[in-house]
Amino acid sequence: MKITKLGHCCLLIEENGVRIMTDPGSFTIPQQEQEKNIDLILISHEHQDHLHVDSVKKVLISNPQAVIISNSAVYKILEKEGIACQIVEKTMSSNFKNIQIEACDHKHGPIYQDYGQVQNTGYFVNNKFYYPGDCFSDPGKPVEILAVPVAGPWLRIGEAIDYAKQINPKNCFPVHDGMIIPQANFGVMVLQHFLKSSTNVAIPEIGKEMEF
Asked: In the predicted model, is pLDDT for residue 183 greater than 60?
């Protein structure tokens, strides 16, 4: 599996010839709009840093073949814009061109009381890579590669470390760090310090492919 971080939570995953984009949001508009040959777009939830509707429209112009998978809340937003979306949520699974996509539903991580606690769906790709969106959800099975959210109003870095320890993946790398400059270094530094004995922490460079 090859993964390229376009920024924040927008990733490009390549597996068995299938190209998958996650969360085309407001922090990564230039990067996501230039990508071609996208087969599948996974959207975890409706917040703008994960779903930027106008940019999604432009991504689809360049990639008319792309299929969007998300949850019911995102489906309603996209339906109003005339954008097709397949619902895969809760504990549902779907097979896309022989790539298994499994959903893991939880509320968005708490910011303050119930503010912003929209439906959040994490996605497990081909029994290898788990992308949780904006919560610390456990897919309930071994994870080879984990995207770890490391910054934002809904989390503390200690929670991110505990989450990575709980999941105990073979490999991990930081996401949800678009508000940090430089973006990757902080998350990598902290994860490497606390996970060095159990998990390989990959160092993502924006636009550079990582192979697992």
From this structure: no
